[in-house]
User: Fold this.
Amino acid sequence: MSESRDKGRSAGRRAMIALSVFVAGALALFLLEDGQRYLWIKALHVISVLSWMAGLLYLPRLFIYHCDAQPNSVQAETFSVMERRLFRFIMTPAMILSWVFGLYLAWDVFGFRGGWLHLKLLSVVALTAAHFYFGRAVGAFAKGTYIGNGRFWRITNEVPTILMIVIVILVVVKPF
Assistant:
């Protein structure tokens, strides 16, 4: 168990170093001219959204497999470690960066105007709610309290997918 904890701490340190380098680079973008800054921030927004979505789509799959494991088994502990690391070191930083870059773009480029943008922001709030619900589930599974069953998580897994489709359509088509 101690070796697993050491590996987790090491992975956490590496993730924090990578995140610090990423944030420092993002802050350096403000030294660029407006046109270049916009393109870089847009690219970083897309990268962070893709990372966040990957986690939002994968974590419920881990829950499905976790539901099949006996509570307090080695397999259940392995899933708990995977879920916790995915949530803490990938999903949550990616969500924060998605919000930071996205709000900057909404303010700088669109001035928070446009019905499509308001609906997009509402959809992102719903995606964030799903993120925090998944986070509560990570904690519950780690304690041996299984939320739902495989079928529940297969259905729940569709929520981020549907929201992602709505968001992409709103951003690309800008219907109103």
In short: The helical segments are 2-28, 34-68, 74-108, 115-142, 150-156, 158-173. The radius of gyration is 18 Å. The chain has six helices and no strands. The chain has a mean pLDDT of 92.
